[in-house]
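Bit of a strange request maybe. I'm writing a small parser for C-alpha cell strings and I need a real example to test against, not something I typed by hand. Could someone generate the C-alpha cells for this chain?
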Amino acid sequence: MIVKYTALDQIKQKKTHSLYVLIGNEPYLLNDAALKIKQAFQKKADCSPTILDVNTPADWAIVINEANSYSLFSDQVLLDVRLDKKSIDASGKELLLNYLEA
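Reply from user aminoacidic:
Good idea to test on real output. This should exercise your parser:
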C-alpha cells in the first residue's frame, strides 16, 4: 500500500504495519516521515528506535539479527534501517520478504 506524505498523520489512529519503506529525494521530508512513523509506534508501545545503516549486502545480516533479538525493556523492537542506494539489492529484498512472511 502506498501512503503519501500528507496522509502519514492518519497512521496514529490506524493500525501500524510491521514494515514501512520511505522513498524520496527530499531529506527533510524523509526524516519528518520517519519521525511521524516512530512517534506512532512509540504511542502504541514503549520502544526506542535503533538506527542501522546498510551499505553492503552483508549488512543485511545485522538487520535480521537486530530484528530477531529481544529487548529487556519492551515487547517490540523499532528498527530504522537506512539505505543510501537507489534500490534494494537481492539479498535485502529476500530478507524483507522472509521477514514479512514470518
